[in-house]
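quick one before i forget lol
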Amino acid sequence: MIKVIMIISNRPACGQTTVAVNLASGLSRKGYRVLIGDTGNNEKLRHWLGIDRQDTGTKAAKPYLEDKQAKIFSSSRTGARHLSC
């Protein structure tokens, strides 16, 4: 069964990305398959994971999110075996 964990806050800069990356990393180390994404437009997740701007895609989720900007990463350069972003 798929389980979804969302880190949500209405305040900017209160640690959502830090919590999400550390939670995903910890679950991955325990052997869980993890998918992590960021719908914000500040690109903090990209920086945390060390992904270059030119490697990111921004249009894949557009039909689903309509007016929201999305960053989709399909690379496994995170150092954790089951962590995708």
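fyi Helices lie at 16-29, 44-49, 62-65.
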